[in-house]
Amino acid sequence: MNRRMFAAVVAAALLAPGAALAQAKTHRVAIHVDDSDPPRINLALNNVENIQKYYAAKGEKVAIEVVTYGPGLVMLRADTSPVKERVAAMSLEYPELRFSACENTRAGMAKREGKAVELVKEATSVPSGVIRLIELQEQGWSYIRP
Question: Is residue 87 part of a domain?
């Protein structure tokens, strides 16, 4: 085997693990919801489904976190969510999907309303929706605001 052939074989062997790692990459997407308008909330959920379907068709993984705060917390309130059934169904269908609810907003709503603000069971409380979005972007997550 001459030197060029040997170099080509070594290069291919070294690149093969990298190619496998590239294929195993998980895409990470943060979706920002700060609007209580049902069409806007549904647009965010449509984005989730479209992203999921696109990467599934390519055989690639995707993790999506929908971060709600301000008026957007309506999306994850057990008593007012216009999409709670859809959130529940999507959570079952897409195991890498997470719904985050701003605790600052939740506490403010509870104070104004004089009662506890319950979240849908699929929601996870985060201290601050804005800070959560910052953290995700600093970790390399792509950011979408429908």
Answer: yes
Contacts of 140 (CB under 8 A, 6+ apart): 28
Q: What is the C-alpha separation between 35 and 69, in angstroms, rounded? A: 8
Q: Give residue 130's domain range.
A: 26-144
What are the distances in angstroms from CA 44 to CA 21, 38, 110?
30, 10, 25
Q: How far apart are CA 91 and CA 98, in angstroms?
A: 7
What CATH number did the domain enclosing 65 receive?
3.40.1260.10
What is the model's pTM? 0.83
- What amino acid occupies position 126? V
pLDDT of residue 84 exceeding 90, the answer is: yes
Q: What token pair was written down for 87?
A: 């959130």
